[in-house]
Amino acid sequence: MTMPAGIATVTLTGRYVHPDGTPFAGNVSFTTPDYVRIPGADTTAGGSVTVTLDVDGSFSVILIATDNDDARPTNFTYTVVETLTGVASRTYHIALPQATGTINLADIAPAAQSDGEFLLVAGPAGRTILNGTGAPTSGDGTNGDFWINTATWTIYGPKASGTWPAGHSLGSGGAVSSVNGQTGVVVLAVADISGAASTSSVTSAVSAATSTEISRADGKYLAKEGNLADLTDPATARTNLGVTPAAIGALTPAAADAAYAPLSKVDTGAWVFNVKAAAYGAAGDGKVRTDGAMTSGSAVLTCATSTPFTSADVGKKVMVKGAGATGVTTLTGTISTFTDSGHVTLSVNASTTVTNAVVMWATDDTTPIQNAINDAVTWAQANGGAARVFIPVSTGFYGIGGALVTGGTTKGNAQLTLPVIASTGRKVVLTIEGATNGAALQHWEQTVPQTAGSTLVSFGVHASVSAQNTSISANGNGCVIGGPAQPGGYGVAPGVFSNMLITLKGINILTAYSLYGLTYTAFDFSGVANAHVEDVAYGAAGVVPANDFASVNQFANGLSIGALLPANGNNDYIVVRNVTCHGGYTYALYATEHATVVDSRILYSWAGLCVVGLYFGSVGATHAIKASQISVEACTHNVMIVGVGSGGVGPFLDIDQLDTETSTPSFTDTTSGTGLAAALGTVKLTGLYTVANLTTGGKPTGLNIVDGQNPLGVRALTGATTVRLTDRYLLCATSSAFTATLQSAGNTSLKQVFRNTGANTLTLAAAGSETIDGSATKTVAAGASVTIVPSGGNWVTV
Fold first, then answer.
1. Percent of all residues in the chain with a pLDDT value above 90, rounded to a whole number
2. In the chain, count of helices (H) and strands (E)?
3. What is the pTM of this model?
4. What's the rounded Cα separation, in Å, for the pair 498 and 138?
5. CB 101: neighbour CB atoms within 10 A?
6. CB–CB of 728/751 below 8 Å?
7. How many other β-carbons are positioned within 10 Å of the β-carbon of residue 271?
8. Cβ-defined contacts of 217-222 (< 8 Å, 24+)
9. pLDDT in tens, 597-639
10. Average pLDDT in the chain
11. For 415, left (φ over 0), alpha (ψ -120 to 50), or beta?
């Protein structure tokens, strides 16, 4: 655009290359200190100009001269910010006087910062003091002025109404006329002061007063001399006061951190490792915006409304929901270039065009948190056997952008790894804890992912279904926090585990959203001996208003598991208390034997509570799983049985309340019916559901499913029907004869009582080729009752 007429400009050029001559990529910005007004050109200028380096690393830009004649202010400086790929950003100041014409940036030494100066404009005369060798005349001065006659040292004024008042003598030469009767230059001695007897008397009076004050100070302020009796010895004084170390005067931050271990911790002692302490330096600066826009094939990310970006964002991890490939959904990468507050360039191109997308970006805190975990375990092994990693609430969430660490000494597949602890030594008790309750559940009207409190956000997602399969087969489930996994030889028969009790408490873990269930697992403790998870939430970074969870069946394209507890054969300690699954997974929670689940909830996954009989070569389940209250909502399957327990029996599952809200409560398995048939225990359904649509996929089950809406299981029949899993007492009004078809007797726990309350025949028919007392059917006469129980895959009356 053409510069307005009347404005002096300077053409500024520049070029940036590496030591080998290859050009830099990046940009340079030039910013005025404030608005610059140029009245002669009827123009106000201000703000920033950003130029992008060309393929040669060069630029050229026309800028307003910093010394335009009528500018307000003039002689200001530009702030220069160099943002170049691969080097630290640099900021300095330059002046561009109009006489320069055209100049290269390399020729200009940075100037001291200046906001410019404003020229003073002469205003009306003010009051002043005039002088002369005579009295003032009416023509001298203005109203308010004073006049000194230097011949007689007489002062006149102030002048008022054009008239000077009478003068007042200042004495000879302006000096004091006399001191104690003496004139001229007076040098005072004691004898010169009326009433003073002698020099010695003055000295004596001063000494007496000083002595009295010292005695008063001694009595008042030195009563505590026991603390400070040796002030001449600073080291002993510090000891008396309890101030250490002795060299505190020279204490540096590093020395303070070493001398005062709690400064590196949170509020306790050496066993607490604060990830934000200077020794680790986690940033916790993650941000979320909902106005992201990208075009397919372009790496430019725009947030035009919120304009949240700064040059400090270069190098941070970033994800843009919806801009990834089909099914992968979320685009993940790094911010490589800062253009302005509304635009940055990413390290990857978008695969899908998006607007109003959720954007999340943060400093990668993987290394600081991993270092804290490693130090905590090392300390625990060398000291009391236990340690805590503390994740405080920060200005934002903590970004976890590190690559999956596979195999090696940690034997797993995790971004944050848990060291392997030998089973022959003392168990290590490791706690990873946030500052508040982390189990907060996102609201269904919430437009941003739930990131309150101590939140870790993973920027990891598998590139495809095949990539996910390969990763799991080779190294176990890719996860945010994980111990050793099955491919590493842990959590498999005959029962090899890392000898650790891992506790997660008060944290929230989010993983990158994927429509096909390709996101990472929040935590995988399958190869760890014990686990305690309390006040924790985890989920994919989706939101309900964006319809991210409207088609949970699509999550079944992948194999993502939200969380895995220690595999069957574990060390008999698994506690899950007040845990929330936000959703976004193929399988929300893999619960294993010995697990106790208390007051927890699962949302928006293909399969909710997944009860493990056998998984990935683990020991077959022989012990039970107990849940007091667990809600499973908006999942295709409320309960899924994974594999079959030891010897074809189990897993064992008891749920006091399985709370749900669905028209089709569903129980299923991963083994075409054998898992459901082998599963044993009692599950009580509660909530709003349609019991008539309760399904096991047509497979028999050993679970005793109780209808919480009708806990006695009493049902009235008036015509032909199929008996439900929740039926216990059936009152059959045979106004005309009809047949009731039974559920399969194969490994079922049903006991059912039929009473014919009508006047006609009731016929009971076994399913398929099964029998009732050896026959395919059994008749119940009018007014009669019959009780049947399963036995050996058939029904018998008792």
1. 72
2. 7, 52
3. 0.68
4. 106
5. 11
6. yes
7. 17
8. none
9. 999 999 999 999 999 999 999 999 999 999 999 999 999 999 9
10. 89
11. alpha
Identify the CA nearest to 746 among candidates 683, 682, 779, 703. Answer: 703
Residue 566 has pLDDT above 90, yes or no: yes
Q: How far apart are CA 368 and CA 420, in angstroms?
A: 19
Q: How far apart are CA 515 and CA 461, in angstroms?
A: 11
pLDDT over 60 (residue 220) = no
- Distance from the Cα of residue 224 to its chain's centroid: 51
Average pLDDT over residues 60-64: 93
Helix (H, G, I), strand (E, B) or coil at 187: coil
Token representation of residue 535: 């006040």
Which residues are CB-neighbours of 128 under 8 A, at least 6 positions away?
A: 141, 145, 146
pLDDT value, residue 175: 47
Q: What does the angle CA 143 – CA 148 – CA 154 come to, to the nearest 5 degrees?
A: 115
Question: What is the distance between the alpha carbons of residues 697 and 605, in angstroms, rounded to a whole number?
Answer: 18
**Collapsed DSSP state (helix, strand, coil) of residue 772:** strand
753, 749, 754, 773: which is closest to 700 by C-alpha?
A: 749
Q: Which two three-digit tokens encode residue 74?
A: 């003039």
3 state SS for 189-250: CHHHCCCCCCHHHHHHHHHHHHHHHHHHHHHHHCCCHHHHCCCCCHHHHHHHHCCCCCCHHH
Query: How does DSSP classify residue 558?
Result: S
Residue whose tokens read 């826009």: 293
Sort strands 48-52 and 317-321 into parallel, antiparallel or unpaired: unpaired
Local structure of residue 473 (DSSP, 8 states)? H
Instruction: Compute the average pLDDT of residues 697-718.
Output: 94
Inter-residue contact 33 to 89 (CB < 8 Å): no
DSSP structural state of residue 440: P
Q: Computed from CA positions of residues 694, 700, 703, 707, in that sequence, does the dihedral angle turn out positive or negative?
A: positive
Q: Is there a contact between 46 and 36 (Cβ–Cβ < 8 Å)?
A: yes
**Integer Cα distance of 478 and 404 in angstroms:** 7
